[in-house]
Amino acid sequence: MFFKNIHKRIKIIIIMTVVLFLIIIGKVFYIQVIDYKKLNKYATSLWSRNLPLASNRGIIYDRNGVELAGNITTTSLVLIPNQISDKESVAKDLAEILNVDYDEMYKHVSKKTSIERVHPEGRNLSYDIADKINDLGYKGVYLVKEAKRDYPYDTLLSHTIGFVGIDNQGLSGLELIYDKYLTGSDGAIKYFSDAKGNSLSMGQIYEQPQSGVNMTLTINYELQKSLERELDIAVSQYNPDQALGIMMDPNTGEILALASRPTFSPSNYQNYTVEQINRNLPIWMTYEPGSTFKIITLAASLEEKIVDLNNDHFFDSGAVTVGGATLHCWKAGGHGEETYLEVVENSCNTGFVNLGLKLGKDKLFNYIDLFGFGKKTGVDLNGESSGILFNKDKIGDLELATTAFGQGVSVTPIQQITAVSAAINGGILYKPYIVKSLNEPETNSVILENNPEIVRKVISEDTSIKVRNALESVVARGTGHNAYIGGYRVGGKTGTAQKAVNGSYLSGNYITSFIGFLPADDPQVVVYIAIDNAKGITQYGGTVAAPIAKNVLLSAIDILGIEKRENEIEREYNYFDKQYAIVPNVVGMSVKDAIKELKKFKVEYSGTGDVITYQSPSVGESVYEGETIRLLLAE
Fold first, then answer.
1. 199 annotated active-site
2. CATH classification at residue 346
3. C-alpha span between 355 and 312 (Å, rounded)
4. One domain, residues 104 and 198
């Protein structure tokens, strides 16, 4: 019995030993195979150290490769506290160089961490400051390279591009929307140290940072510069509350330029209010459009064939009563007997009321919906508003009438220019966009690409031609004459909208606007300008906004290489207008004969002799009468 019990105990011990052995083997297997990466990471973290290397953010280009947002290399301060022996001296010297409090710096050098980034005082250091720190020669004090966002043209396109924070994270605009693409992957210089933080002689590992994805916009830098220059001049001249401009290719929906005033500097965003930074007016601002909205009523009326512009007539007495309310034309006493083409040229409110009533509620508001009003366009920018339309169930004759000439509804500039582009491009509504492509930085291979996107067909090609002709006539013979450019066939429409606050219209406070395009027979560019409460001038779209749009279009002619057109509508002048004249060819003539030919101009000479060998401006140029023609004389 005794030996039997011993034998039984031996069996139990053997079994227990085998089980224990299997557990140990299993544990070793788990550690070596299954949990290896995790434990190795823990172990490595105890004796490896990383000096961070920030990556470059993706570059933002205009459509022609002009860099609008790039990167510059700066230096930042990083500490390894375990390597700093004389913490008091290091804290004192660094505090003096960085002009910060000693106690605050001592917290950095004494912190119980493997690596301490001195933030924000030690970020983006100047070369002078970095040299002073480097000359100290302290162990445990490191200077590492860091990328900083650079906006070479400062305020240019600032609301659209946006800005980044100190850690290169996108905080507004395209920088925020496409942050996951634009942000790169940081690298590091990895080395190994003992428990005290001392570097071990095991070499270093360099992990290269990866730059973010590059972005190409539909923006044309030259057009953008021109638009912003003209808005700056307008702000200086009229001191408006706000100003905005937007340019578009009407045949694709590509945004060519976009600007707001007031503007801000993305490199110094801390100096501006949230409102100044976030209000990208062409996308965000809503207001009554005024007479530029008449283009929609015109297009709808032509499409529905309720009017013949040349043969149908309307008598404007200056006022009309609708739904118990009296609506006035902008011209006191009215325009009298007009063709409907003259109704458009004169921007006659009562004539458009008549067109609206002829169309009826259902048809007019159906076209307003088709042209994209009352909802967001879907442009690839943040902060877009949708505008406000009358509730269709509550629309009576009065609401119908005021809508027909652009009062009582609220729209955005991006809606306006997108809709008018459809009215003049053959009737196709495009979705507007500003990002052309995203490209891998090393190979330039396309990651994402935007192409013109048709939303729907709105009106026929025939109707669109009639709209273009009518709007060209507005510029040649009507309220848009200040946008006329001889030889280039400009079409457009003025707008003057009284501002409303809390349901009441402000006295003497208007948003003046102009939307124009060229060439009128084959539109290549369309521009919309709106000036909010211009001071020191009679507030009409034709007097304030049209000349600004004209200057922008003149720049577009040169930048886009737009050629002169034939068969333009001849300009009609009022007695107070400055008139254009075509410069004749006087090269080779005698001075006497040249003076006869140039009787509409002033003449200046240089050189000696009696024969003209050179003239400026050149032959065929359209310039104001009374301007100076310079002639070079020779024997």
1. no
2. 3.40.710.10
3. 12
4. yes
Distance CA 480, CA 502 (A): 31
> Could you tell me if 492 and 600 lie in one domain?
no
**Pair (299, 395) in one structural domain:** yes
**Residue with the larger pLDDT of the pair 4 and 440:** 440
Instruction: Check whether residue 466 and residue 589 sit in a common domain.
Output: no
pLDDT (tens digit, 9 = 90+) per residue, 394-425? 889 999 999 999 998 999 999 999 999 999 99
Confidence band of 575 (pLDDT split at 50, 70, 90)? very low
Instruction: State the Cα torsion 221-224-226-232 to the nearest 10°.
Output: -140
- Both 328 and 475 in one domain: the answer is yes
CA angle 534, 540, 541 (to 5 degrees): 95
> Catalytic residue among 158, 291, 421, 464, which?
291
136 shares its domain with 237: no
- Other CB atoms within 10 Å distance of the CB of residue 350: 25
* CA atoms within a 13 Å half-sphere pointing along the CA-CB vector of 522: 7
For 219-286, the DSSP string reads --HHHHHHHHHHHHHHHHHH--SEEEEEEE-TTT-BEEEEEEES---GGGGGGS-HHHHH--HHHH--
CATH code for the domain in which residue 182 is found: 3.90.1310.10
Evaluate the CA torsion angle 26, 29, 34, 40 in order and state its sign: positive
What does DSSP assign to residue 30? I
Amino acid at 117: R
**pLDDT for 141-163, tens place per residue?**
888 777 889 999 999 999 999 99
In this predicted model, what pLDDT tens digit does every residue of 481-507 receive, in sequence order?
999 998 899 999 999 998 877 777 888
